[in-house]
């Protein structure tokens, strides 16, 4: 009785009972791809908890000390307090090495899940209205987590992380006009400076996590709960009808078990597979460079862009502009994130599709989008492979210059070929689906007719199969002169203009360009 009175008093003041009752009944789809975002969310929880543990023992200081800990090979070696405290966490703090490795593996799983989730949303069109804002938040989360991962594995101040910081310093000073000032501000002096670890630590554990704690609930909870969940086409489903299980108790039980699975997988990875053994690398020394250094996989594309870029530079008013650093370090990620952020709006502008979408596409349903997605994957993949061109050259006994030129050609030709091949495959699959709907499903039963010819018996498609095989058509291109200017193509507008004595005036160049893009898209 007291419990119900307390709940009633809280509801009178906070008014949460109505929302809670509605939330408990919210329907969640059952398709497995829906859980890709859940992996990212739960990996973030693991990273957050293990990170809190590590902050109790890590010392973000570059002050030099003489190591006298339990790791015998480094006893008596001068190193920073940051590196010494990381060794202490690894060898002397109970459970410290497990927490370090869970933190690192959790970050890798977190980023991998984000990438998989974004690819799922891209190829299925889940970014379309009304989820374009959520897509932008997802792109921002991807960039923030990637940046925080870079800062995180730079904190131990070992030889491997120092090589990454050297690259970061080179990129910073290459920025025209303000580069040297930014480098002095970030590093606290000439490289390697005295303050870089403490400043990265503040960003890594305070600034970016605060932004993540703000954006992740907005992305995963607030907007998701306010909107209808996406689902794949099926008989009886529409943009107004959702099929699945309620949040309580079905989805809550399933997602709780799924969290335990994610936790178990990260814990097993951290237990069985060693990662970032900083004691093998030694403390960072500016005069020492280790061979075969490789960053974590999500930063590999930046490494590859730097390696295959030609040595271009020029002088402006006596100042050298190093394009060989600016283009790969700022241009490659800038192109990736700009295209990701703008794509939903570009597709809407080209197709003139301003409708609300809750049903997902299959990748084959929109061949152009499928081709563009594969082109983006090839672009990223080529740069990622180029980041290991030295290892590829040494492993396969080929010239390093040859591998560099192969990747230079591949970064241009690869995305084009990926687009063409993926689009043709999607068109072929669509043609196959149309044939199946028109002629029936192959049964594998071969019969011989009266004329001696053999043929296969085909059964008609069911309504359930037809609902999946027949995609919703893209909006048709409106006829000239019937563009209302609001994306519907049904208004009067001014698509056809007449001048006195001049006959029809052609539409503006921008509209002609968009019409050409849409005709290409629909083909």
Describe the structure.
The chain is mainly α. It has two domains: 18-337, Cytochrome Bc1 Complex, Chain C (Up-down Bundle), CATH 1.20.810; 362-469, no CATH class. Helices cover 60% and strands 8% of the residues. It has 18 helices and twelve strands. It has helices at 2-14, 17-24, 36-55, 81-91, 96-124, 132-152, 159-173, 179-187, 196-226, 247-272, 278-281, 300-308, 323-351, 367-386, 389-396, 400-439, 463-469, 509-522; strands at residues 27-28, 64-66, 78-80, 231-232, 245-246, 314-316, 319-321, 359-360, 441-448, 454-459, 497-499, 503-505. The protein has a two-stranded antiparallel sheet with strand order 1-5. A two-stranded antiparallel ribbon has the order 2-3. A two-stranded parallel ribbon has the order 4-8. It is a multi-pass membrane protein. This is Cytochrome bc1 complex cytochrome b subunit. It is an enzyme of class 7 (translocase).
**Tally of DSSP β-strands:** 12
Structural class: mainly alpha
Helices and strands, in order, run as: HHEHEEHHHHHHEEHHHEEHEHHHEEHEEH
The portion of residues forming beta strands comes to 5-15%
Spatial strand arrangement across the major sheet: 1-5
Q: Specify the biggest β-sheet.
A: 2 strands, antiparallel
Quick one: CATH superfamily of the largest domain? Cytochrome Bc1 Complex, Chain C
CATH class of the largest domain: Mainly Alpha
Amount of helix: 55-70%
Tally of separate helices = 18
Spans of 5+ residues with little confidence (pLDDT < 50)? 473-505
CATH architecture of the largest domain: Up-down Bundle
For this structure, the quaternary state is single chain
The CATH topology of the largest domain: Cytochrome Bc1 Complex, Chain C
Average pLDDT score: 83
Q: What number of structural domains do the residues give?
A: 2
**C-alpha geometry:** globular
Radius of gyration, in angstroms, nearest whole number: 28 Å
Task: Report how far apart the termini are.
Answer: 67 Å
EC number: 7.1.1.8
Protein name: Cytochrome bc1 complex cytochrome b subunit
Transmembrane segments: 39-58, 104-123, 135-155, 167-189, 201-225, 246-275, 325-346, 366-385, 405-422
Biased composition (Gly residues): 484-502
């Amino acid at each position: 009785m007291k419990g119900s009175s307390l709940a009633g008093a809280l509801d009178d003041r906070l008014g949460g009972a109505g929302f809670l009752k509605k939330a408990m009944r919210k329907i969640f789809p059952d398709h497995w791809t829906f859980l890709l975002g859940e992996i990212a969310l739960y990996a973030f929880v693991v990273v957050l908890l293990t990170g809190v543990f590590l902050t109790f023992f890590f010392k973000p200081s570059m002050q030099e000390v003489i190591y006298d800990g339990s790791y015998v090979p480094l006893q008596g070696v001068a190193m920073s307090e940051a590196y010494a405290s990381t060794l202490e966490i690894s060898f002397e703090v109970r459970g410290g090495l497990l927490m370090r490795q869970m933190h690192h593996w959790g970050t890798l799983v977190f980023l991998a899940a984000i990438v998989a989730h974004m690819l799922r949303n891209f190829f299925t069109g889940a970014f379309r209205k009304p989820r374009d804002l959520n897509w932008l938040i997802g792109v921002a989360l991807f960039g923030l987590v990637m940046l925080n991962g870079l800062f995180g594995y730079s904190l131990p101040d070992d030889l491997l992380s120092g090589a990454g910081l050297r690259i970061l310093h080179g990129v910073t000073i290459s920025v025209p006009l303000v580069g040297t000032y930014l480098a002095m501000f970030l590093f606290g002096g000439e490289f390697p400076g005295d303050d870089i670890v403490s400043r990265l630590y503040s960003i890594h554990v305070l600034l970016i996590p605060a932004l993540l704690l703000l954006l992740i609930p907005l992305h995963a909870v607030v907007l998701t709960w306010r909107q209808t969940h996406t689902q794949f086409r099926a008989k009886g489903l529409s943009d107004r009808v959702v099929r699945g299980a309620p949040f309580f108790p079905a989805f809550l039980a399933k997602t709780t078990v799924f969290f335990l699975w994610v936790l178990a997988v990260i814990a097993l990875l951290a237990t069985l597979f060693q990662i970032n053994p900083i004691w093998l690398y030694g403390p960072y020394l500016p005069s020492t460079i280790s061979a075969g250094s490789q960053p974590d996989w999500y930063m590999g594309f930046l490494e590859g862009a730097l390696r295959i870029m030609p040595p271009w530079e020029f002088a402006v008013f006596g100042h050298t502009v190093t394009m060989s650093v600016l283009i790969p370090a700022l241009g490659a990620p800038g192109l990736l994130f700009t295209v990701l952020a703008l794509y939903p709006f570009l597709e809407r502008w080209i197709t003139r599709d301003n409708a609300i979408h809750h049903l997902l596409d299959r990748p084959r349903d929109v061949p152009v989008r499928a081709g563009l997605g594969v082109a983006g994957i090839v672009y990223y993949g080529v740069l990622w492979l180029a980041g290991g061109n030295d290892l590829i050259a040494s492993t396969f006994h080929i010239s390093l210059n040859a591998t560099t030129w192969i990747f230079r050609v591949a970064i241009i030709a690869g995305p084009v070929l990926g687009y063409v091949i993926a689009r043709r495959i999607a068109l072929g699959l669509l043609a196959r689906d149309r044939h199946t709907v028109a002629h029936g499903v192959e049964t594998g039963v071969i019969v011989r007719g009266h004329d001696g010819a053999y043929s296969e018996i085909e059964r008609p498609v069911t309504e359930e199969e037809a609902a999946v095989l027949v995609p919703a058509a893209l909006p048709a291109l409106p006829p000239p002169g019937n563009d209302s200017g609001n994306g519907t193509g049904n208004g009067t507008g001014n698509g056809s203009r007449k001048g006195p004595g001049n006959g029809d005036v052609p539409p503006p160049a921008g509209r002609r360009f968009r019409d050409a893009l849409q005709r290409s898209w629909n083909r």
